[in-house]
């Protein structure tokens, strides 16, 4: 995937943020949901300009996936682009978007990784800790780990593991013959729940509805900024 050039980050900032991730990691809890969700949110962020970030939440009823509300927030980018530390760049603006929801979700599906991250602190885990809300990540590309390609039919699954064998997530074919998704728990959610909810939210597209609609509305909201 193409990424624009970013100058190297200040090593001191990298060390400080990496240390913060290590400390946050100790507080992540992978647990089944206490009850079946009635509201599920999709969350996505994009960068309309190099200096601004737009974060979107779309709230849906579960299991019907009827849209209940959609909100966004635009703010300045305050942290440089640093691979493996993108959650610090996105999370502050995401939290401001979340505050605009009139109703709060039982679980959040985040466009990105949960624990399938070199330090087990992808954006879904990061947000889950900050909000103390169950979260999991659905990403389009692998960040870390190894896996065997799942079968080409929708619903096929293979484990995403560290070389040591530690389970990081599951690789899910969400539609026949399309590239798979990488699903991992974030916080207050476990792998079985993350996988089940991802599959339950598929409606014929590659992406499950919560993150598909968050991505769609991010594009729509960008038009309001022009």
TrEMBL record:
Q: What is its main location?
A: cytoplasm
Q: Which reaction does it catalyse?
A: Endonucleolytic cleavage at apurinic or apyrimidinic sites to products with a 5'-phosphate
Which organism is this entry from?
Answer: Hymenobacter algoricola
What keywords are annotated for this sequence in UniProt? Cytoplasm, DNA damage, DNA repair, Endonuclease, Hydrolase, Magnesium, Metal-binding, Nuclease
Gene name linked to the record: nfi
Subcellular compartments:
Cytoplasm
Function, in words: DNA repair enzyme involved in the repair of deaminated bases. Selectively cleaves double-stranded DNA at the second phosphodiester bond 3' to a deoxyinosine leaving behind the intact lesion on the nicked DNA.
Report the CDD domains cross-referenced here. Answer: Endonuclease_V
What's a Pfam family this protein contains? Endonuclease_5
Q: What is this protein called?
A: Endonuclease V
Q: Where is this site: Interaction with target DNA?
A: 81
NCBIfam families, per the entry: PRK11617.1
Q: To which protein family does this belong?
A: Belongs to the endonuclease V family.
Source organism superkingdom? Bacteria
The prosthetic group or cofactor this protein requires is:
Mg(2+)
Listed InterPro entries: Endonuclease-V (IPR007581)
Please list the GO terms describing molecular function: endonuclease activity
